[in-house]
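Re: the request from the purification team.
They wanted to know what the chain is likely to look like in 3D before they choose a buffer screen. I agreed to run a prediction and write the result into the notebook, where they can find it.
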Amino acid sequence: MAVREDLAEFLKSRRARVDPQDTGLPPSGLRRVPGLRRSELAHLAGISAEYYQRLEQRRAANPSTDVLDALASALRLNEIETAHLHTLAHPPRVAETGAVTPRPELLRMLDLIDKAPAVVITDLFDVLAANPVANYVFGPMAAENMARALFCDPAARTFYVEWEDVAAATVAQLRRTVGRYPNDPATTALVDELASGSAEFIELWKIGEVEQRSFGRKIIRHPHSGDVTFDYENLELPGDPRQRIVTFVPAAGTELPDYF
């Protein structure tokens, strides 16, 4: 499976997602494949069909910001997807390899969060540190890569009540990381490993979604404490964009187990 996504593949996947009837285009008969035709997308974006064809055939380099924004608008991309489009077209000159240990200040912060699970995690879902509550809630998963556990540990399918949603979000976030750090060996190795060990991962990767969840809700089925609903906050760190703190606060009205 191709790990290094490029601009052409992303454009193809997003073009296939758009329903022509939603764009105001006139009916054009039967279609062999879903989504917009190349010529239709080019028309909506205000560029020539020949130039757009060169983009999808990897024969056009360095598309302008205006062209990318026009394509993003025509494809109805959200903010994260638009940023991903620009990143694929113009990869940033940034450090590929993230720090393997969190700063001491972050560890002290985790020590002060004693009422809710909290972890320092990388954009590859490696857990670098966890407070005691997180170790209780997540068990062995708090000591390893959470994406690997999600797809390769059968227990994860019971642990995450909404496993399919968590899996889809995880793949979409990994795709964003691949776009930002295409030459990072650790990124490539993890995606290759997950693809070789999980058919579900491959299917989700093929869909082509990209996102970054800053907050949300997870329902976990703990082996000792039962079902608990958490609202999580995903906080990226300005000191290292490849690390973030994630906190899990029991949702309002949730009946907490004795541990909390």
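For the purification team: The chain has a mean pLDDT of 87.
Please add any questions underneath this entry.
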